[in-house]
């Protein structure tokens, strides 16, 4: 790795730069990710110090477990920071510009999954 990943929200107001090697690429099927993204939410995480955000990000606290970063204008759901691991930040894989070089590893919160799609890609399923 060593490559820098860049991404932005749908309207281009929020930009991010990831300087670390993303880990834990996963699709979350929980109800909050479903509501916020319109489907399931794919993300990976890095150490917060390896990640820069530019723009007027809005942090939402929908539960005690985490804060979610969105663009206040276009509503793109970009970031997730767990209350128990604030030194890490998860970011939306779909917001990366250009090739990601990332491969999904697993599905999480599968028990919360909506019923309109199947998981048959062979990846590990948890939760
Ligand atoms: Zn935006
Ligand atoms: Zn989720």
Descriptive overview:
The model has no long low-confidence stretch (mean pLDDT 96). The strands form 2 sheets. An 8-stranded mixed sheet has the order 6-7-8-9-4-3-10-11. Helix content is 6%, strand content 41%. It is mainly beta and 127 residues long. The chain has a single domain, classed as Metal Binding Protein, Guanine Nucleotide Exchange Factor, Chain A (Beta Complex). It starts with a strand and ends with a strand. It has one helix at 31-37, and strands at 5-8, 15-18, 23-28, 41-47, 51-54, 58-63, 66-70, 77-82, 88-92, 106-108, 124-125. One zinc ion binds at residues 28, 30, 32-33, 41, 109.
In brief:
Helices cover 6% and strands 41% of the residues.
Helix content: under 10%
- Name the ligand types: zinc ion
The poorly predicted ranges are none
Instruction: For the record, give the distance between the C-alpha atoms at the N and C termini, rounded to a whole number.
Output: 29 Å
Structural class: mainly beta
Radius of gyration: 14 Å
Beta-strand content: 35-45%
Apparent shape: globular
Main sheet overview: 8 strands, mixed
Please tell me the overall pLDDT: 96
What is the second-level CATH architecture?
Beta Complex
Kindly give the count of domains. 1
Number of helices: 1
In sequence order, what are the helices and strands, one letter per element? EEEHEEEEEEEE
CATH domain class name: Mainly Beta
**CATH domain fold name:** Metal Binding Protein, Guanine Nucleotide Exchange Factor, Chain A
Assembly context of the chains: single chain
Number of beta strands:
11
Instruction: Name the strands of the widest sheet in spatial order.
Output: 6-7-8-9-4-3-10-11
């Amino acid at each position: 790795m060593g490559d820098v990943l860049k991404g932005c929200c749908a309207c281009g107001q929020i930009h991010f730069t990831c300087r670390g090697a993303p880990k834990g690429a996963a699709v979350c099927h929980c109800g909050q990710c479903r509501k916020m993204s319109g489907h399931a939410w794919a993300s990976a995480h890095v150490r917060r110090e390896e990640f820069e955000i530019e723009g007027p990000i809005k942090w939402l606290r929908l539960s005690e477990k985490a804060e979610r970063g969105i663009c206040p204008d276009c509503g793109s759901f970009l970031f997730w920071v767990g209350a128990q691991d604030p030194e890490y930040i998860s970011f939306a894989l779909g917001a990366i510009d250009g090739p990601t070089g990332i491969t999904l590893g697993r599905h999480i919160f599968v028990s919360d999954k909506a019923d309109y799609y199947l998981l048959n890609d062979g990846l590990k399923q948890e939760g």
